[in-house]
Amino acid sequence: MRDQGKEPTGLELTETLESYSERGMEYVKTLHDIITVNNLAVLDQASLRDEPVTLTVGVTSEQETAEIESKIEQMRATGELDRIVRKMRLE
Fold it and tell me: Would the pTM count as exceeding 0.70?
């Protein structure tokens, strides 16, 4: 597709995976369903950049914010946060 100047979508790429699984087209259909149900097609235009990682955490109260900040500091102190970030970057 790229040789033809086209950018393939995730849904189009799943079509090439029929022989990847012994489930065949059922596997492809499952992937289609996952992409569709979770609205993942919006990520077709996503790109990865080498820049600082920003963690976004949803909280509903100041108390919850303080608890999360404390947990993050504990993770930073033990090195666990660095391990997670490295894993996310596939380093």
Answer: no
Q: Looking at the chain, list the stretches that DSSP marks H as alpha helix, in order from N- to C-terminal side.
A: 10-14, 25-37, 62-78, 80-88
Q: What's the number of domains the chain is made of? A: 2
Evaluate whether 57 touches 68 at the Cβ level (below 8 Å): yes
By residue count, the chain amounts to: 91
Distance CA(58)–CA(38), nearest Å, equals 19
User: Domain limits at 59?
Assistant: 48-91
* pLDDT tens readout for residues 39-75: 899 888 877 777 776 767 778 889 998 998 999 999 9
